[in-house]
Automatic annotation (TrEMBL):
NCBIfam families tied to this protein: yecD_yerC
Gene3D superfamilies to which the protein is assigned, alphabetical: TrpR-like
The protein's name: TrpR like protein, YerC/YecD
Highest taxon listed in the record's lineage: Bacteria
InterPro entries attached to this UniProt entry: Trp_repress, Trp_repressor/repl_initiator, TrpR-like_sf, YecD_YerC
């Protein structure tokens, strides 16, 4: 885990996120705490990560998501050399696990 972001303020934020009970509560909270562009950027990175795991090309990803190659590369670096946070979440989301299985066939 990256130690440079770990502090009381980040802990407080994560506690708030963990208190959310459903998708609607997530919408309400994240719309208040993030700008629209911040939220769209986060969701774009998450979609890019899913597509990279599904072995899509940078061109396919850029065309579908509108992400720059710099963003795709940054997400790819996190997937390959990061803290496995994406993999942790993807393993808990049935749709993404199913997409990985379909790509393998």
């Amino acid at each position: 885990m990256s130690k440079n972001i770990k502090n009381d303020s980040v802990d407080y934020l994560f506690d708030a996120v963990l208190s959310l009970k459903n998708k609607e509560e997530c919408y309400v909270f994240f719309e208040d705490i993030c700008t629209v562009n911040e939220l769209l950027s986060l969701s774009q990175r998450f979609e890019v990560a899913a597509m990279l795991r599904a072995k899509k090309t940078y061109l396919e990803i850029a065309e579908k998501t509108g992400a720059s190659t710099a963003t795709i590369s940054r997400v790819n670096r996190s997937l390959n050399y990061g803290n496995d946070g994406y993999d942790l979440v993807f393993s808990r989301i049935p749709e993404i696990s199913q997409m990985d299985e379909e790509e393998a066939q």
